[in-house]
Design brief:
The chain is built from 7 helices and 17 strands. The protein has about 300 residues and is of the alpha+beta class.
Length: about 300
């Protein structure tokens, strides 16, 4: 139900909005408060309001790589789905993109221009903001390699332009994780001047490879676990004999063992218990503790 608008804006402020429909797993409870700003000014207004009300803040992009508790999320959830602007500099090969811009759409856009550098993002069901925070990667590429800078909304409400070098990037990590610093937009450096037909073909190959090897027939959150140094998480889970293992309506994918599927009617607790079961079984078999790549939001006690 829409209660009001954010102060000095026309942005609706909603209460008790189900987040299941906003996540790729299709599970999770309600946000205590929920907004979908269409401009950076509205996002700043949402951030300021939450701080004044002393509410915790969660930013929601495409809803992938998230497991939201069935008990919901306290505080304010800010959806970036409308922050999808994009500008290109044809001379330098740089493009600046809003935090809510979908990564697959970005890959297709740059391929049509004949710009190389983001072919690998085509199969990642996330947004630019999430990619900056998580150092998203695939097919040998990652965010840190192409990112020039990001515009960050700092906890004191000011805007800061932060270079990629300042973000402390590592494997699927950055210094932005578990902070109240919000990504508003990102600037990438690509390689212009290539044959668009060839870049599009390479992009399509990346997509075809992912469709062939990863499950897309049921809702899921993408890769569940980070790869340990010695092996891939999927190989460890498969060799432990867990493909197809199910708790409730959550199942380890038969196609790729590092994916957990919502086979219809799964709860967040089904997925959570399956994650913990996989971790324990792999640790017992291989003495390796798998660390989740998926981010757990809310109370799972």
């Amino acid at each position: 139900m829409t209660l009001s608008c954010l102060p000095q804006t026309q942005c609706p402020l909603q209460r008790q909005v189900s987040l299941a429909k906003f996540t790729t797993l299709n599970v999770g409870g309600c946000a205590e408060w929920f907004v979908e700003p269409r401009t950076i000014a509205e996002l700043q207004a949402a951030y300021t309001w939450a701080q004044e009300e002393e509410l915790p803040i969660m930013v929601l992009g495409a809803g992938s790589n998230l497991l939201v508790s069935d008990r919901g999320v306290p505080g304010l959830v800010i959806s970036t789905k409308h922050l999808r602007y994009l500008t290109t500099d044809l001379e330098t090969g740089q493009l600046t993109v809003g935090a809510g811009y979908p990564l697959p759409k970005l890959a297709h856009h740059t391929a049509k221009l004949g710009w190389r550098g983001l072919e690998w993002v085509v199969g990642i069901p996330g947004t630019v903001g999430g990619a900056v925070v998580m150092n998203a990667g695939a097919h040998g590429g990652c965010t840190a390699e192409r990112l020039v800078s990001a515009v960050i909304l700092e906890p004191d409400g000011t805007l800061a332009v932060v270079s990629a070098r300042e973000l402390g990037y590592g494997y699927r990590t950055s210094c932005l994780q578990d902070t109240q610093r919000l990504v508003l937009q990102a600037t990438w450096q690509l390689e212009p001047g290539h044959d668009p037909a060839q870049v599009k073909a390479d992009t399509q190959k990346h997509l075809s490879d992912r469709l062939r090897t990863q499950p897309y027939d049921f809702p899921n959150c993408g890769s569940v676990f980070r790869n340990p140094q010695e092996w891939t998480a999927g190989w460890l889970i498969e060799q432990t004999g867990l493909k197809g293992y199910q708790i409730g309506h959550a199942q380890v994918s038969e196609k790729h063992a590092n994916f957990i599927l919502n086979c219809g009617g799964a709860t967040a607790m089904d997925v959570y218990h399956l994650i913990r079961y996989v971790q324990t079984a792999v640790a017992d078999r291989w003495a390796v503790w798998l660390h989740p790549e998926v981010k757990l939001i809310g109370d799972f006690a």
